[in-house]
């Protein structure tokens, strides 16, 4: 029995599936990049927008995390929060995931997004299940750790 035509067909089928997978990955990355630049996944991005009207933004530690209360973290351009050393704002909390949440600007506003953490993120006492707009004075709670979001207006 001659298996060569079947073997060639299977090789081409494998290559076709591989290329489709790579295209799917590239498309997903493109959508993520557009969303992070300030546009929606299918629309145009707002390029060059200054976060929060150009104001500096801060996360101020209220309690927990092994960080002294009152410590301020600059969030201009966005930050990640969590237990991991890879997080921009790293803290120790047994209820926090490695990369637990992220806080980022879009246009003239800031948003908080839980990064599929195990124990969730609270914004002003409510669960953050998707991206949620953060306002001046909002409280962000991850486990036993709490931060206050502040805009530094001139």
Structural class per helix/strand content? alpha+beta
Low-confidence stretches: 38-53
The N- and C-terminal alpha carbons lie at a distance of 82 Å
Helix content: 10-25%
Kindly provide the radius of gyration, computed on alpha-carbon positions and rounded to a whole number of angstroms.
Answer: 21 Å
The strand line-up of the biggest sheet is 2-1-11-10-7-8
**How would you sum up the major sheet?**
6 strands, antiparallel
Q: Give me the count of strands.
A: 11
Count of DSSP helices?
1
Overall average residue pLDDT? 82
What does the overall shape look like? elongated
Give the percentage of residues in beta strands: 25-35%
Spell the H/E element sequence: HEEEEEEEEEEE
Task: Tell me what you see in this structure.
It contains one helix and eleven strands; from the N terminus they run αβββββββββββ. It has 154 residues and is α+β, with helices and mostly antiparallel strands. The strands form two sheets. Strands 2-1-11-10-7-8 form a six-stranded antiparallel beta sheet, with no helix packed on it. A five-stranded mixed beta sheet has the order 4-3-5-6-9, with no helix packed on it. 22% of the residues lie in helices and 31% in strands. The chain is elongated and about 75 Å long.
